Amino acid sequence: xxxxxxxxxxxxxxxxxxxxxxxxxxxxxxxxxxxxxxxxxxxxxxxxxxxxxxxxxxxxxxxxxxxxxxxxxxxxxxxxxxxxxxxxxxxxxxxxxxxxxxxxxxxxxxxxxxxxxxxxxxxxxxxxxxxxxxxxxxxxxxxxxxxxxxxxxxxxxxxxxxxxxxxxxxxxxxxxxxxxxxxxxxxxxxxxxxxxxxxxxxxxxxxxxxxxxxxxxxxxxxxxxxxxxxxxxxxxxxxxxxxxxxxxxxxxxxxxxxxxxxxxxxxxxxxxxxxxxxxxxxxxxxxxxxxxxxxxxxxxxxxxxxxxxxxxxxxxxxxxxxxxxxxxxxxxxxxxxxxxxxxxxxxxxxxxxxxxxxxxxxxxxxxxxxxxxxxxxxxxxxxxxxxxxxxxxxxxxxxxxxxxxxxxxxxxxxxxxxxxxxx
Length: 423
Fold this sequence. Notes:
It is a single chain. The protein is mainly β and about 425 residues long. It has 6 helices and 17 strands. Strands 3-4-7-10-11-12-13-15-16 form a 9-stranded antiparallel β-sheet, with no helix packed on it. Residues about 1-15 and about 35-50 have low confidence and may be disordered.
């Protein structure tokens, strides 16, 4: 056995005798061919005529997922669907090596670069099962609507509220000892003349039930909506060494992205997440000075800018369209009536930007078994935010104003909404 070692390379063992079999010969030949083609680390790298290494390294890649390769999820098949959207592509490249400029720079051991890019394209279904008012409830007809126990849900007229002359304050409030009396609507139906015009107009942007999964009208709205995710990012880096003890590194990076959130409603009343746009920019310059074999000084300056935004201030005047006065347009008003899905969003419009500038000086030295590092840093941060919470108003409804005062499982928040009685 002869051991051969090349300078800077891992030692390899070579047999002094030829392979004992045809399989061994084939293995040795395969090693020779892959070493010549792949420029593996254990093989010498080619050099230019002046002895300077001048080749680059890189790769191109693509990862993907597709619904054509997947089974249909149970929740979609159960709702009668035949397709679950899933199309995801993640791709990019990177390349690095010595800087080469034809007729100017033919490759140098002192200047290297690297460049990387990555992109994402994704379209994927998001599924939800929620509860919304039935078509019957939307007209104010509660004659067959039941509570969570399956009993008829009584709706009371707030205008009929009056003190109970027989109330005994020494006893707790109960069906037989009410502090206030209130009459139910005849037939448990809210008259058409009592339905609020703003509520009825807003309901034109509210979807109808499309499922019947749970008991007592629960889980009657199935959402199968696509979400879109698009992103692009690139990082470039240049590293230059001069006068042996100095190294200068600069790095630039950017990324842009868009998140198209799944739509719970196909209208402006959608209560789901916002679409969002993202941007990021980053740059840095670093100087490393090797003072001695034991001491290094590093100075870095970096700047970063991140921003995100959603919605536009030029949106239609949805509040005015449904007859709601005294509030700004810009977005659909927020109507909340638990346990049903609400209408509108809390933060339909926002703009956020953050800029950071940092200068850092680090001195590191070693003395025997001791290491000492001193760092000085100055940072400046700028934050700009425009984030109105309820630009078109927020209205919360509860069952209190349509219930029998003090008695649970009576009244309903959505019935209060139909009457225009917000908390």
